[in-house]
Specification:
alpha+beta; 4-stranded antiparallel sheet; 4 strands; about 55% helix
Length: about 190
């Protein structure tokens, strides 16, 4: 079978219009309808997912899970309140240093060197570091660190180095005076960062 092309000008013009219309439909489908169909399919999948989540939430509420969620939110609120108590504000750092000094005196140690090591800036809180040393018997140094660890704010002794003290005068027989050199690290909440 032989393909016959139109011979009249009018038929040729109609064939060109038909070919251009078919090409336009193809290009519309390829560049407009196809991408929109993909977006619509993704949107429909998201709607189906959200509908399923809403149905699950309705079932949970119907069986009393809302009270469980409220209880969990209350528990998280209490934990947040506790964390706010553990992390001091900037104006409390001198008080913390005084509490550390008091903890040393309470167990009979001499707090010697206190030097600030600087502040490490963070997104939610800043880390304040100090270099310190105490001198006294081993067990009292342990009591001192236990006292620092039980403070109401987070204060972490780090990089502890125990050395034999220069002088041993006044020590009971069988005990050795030690010098504990260490860093203290505490965290300070940023204003509005909680």
């Amino acid at each position: 079978m032989e393909l016959k092309l139109p011979t009249t000008q009018r038929d040729q013009l109609m064939l060109i219009v038909i070919v251009l219309a078919a090409a336009g439909i193809y290009l519309f489908h390829l560049y407009v309808y196809g991408p929109k169909a993909i977006q619509l399919d993704a949107l429909q999948a998201r709607v189906d997912s959200l509908t399923a989540q809403n149905e699950t939430a309705r079932r949970d509420v119907a069986r009393g899970a809302a009270s469980e969620i409220r209880a969990e939110a209350d528990r998280y609120g209490r934990i947040l309140t506790l964390m706010r108590q553990l992390v001091p504000t900037a104006n409390e750092v001198p008080t913390l240093i005084e509490q550390i000094s008091t903890a040393a005196r309470r167990v009979g140690l001499e707090l010697e060197d206190i030097r600030p090591l600087g502040i490490i800036r963070g997104d939610v809180f800043d880390t304040h570091k100090y270099n310190m040393s105490v001198t006294g018997p081993y067990h009292r140094i342990g009591e001192f660190f236990a006292g620092v660890g039980s403070m109401t704010r987070i204060v972490a002794p780090m990089n502890v180095n125990l050395l034999r003290a220069q002088t041993q005068a006044g020590m009971p027989r069988g005990e050795t005076r030690l010098e504990a050199q260490f860093e203290i690290q505490t965290y300070v909440a940023k204003r509005g960062g909680s």
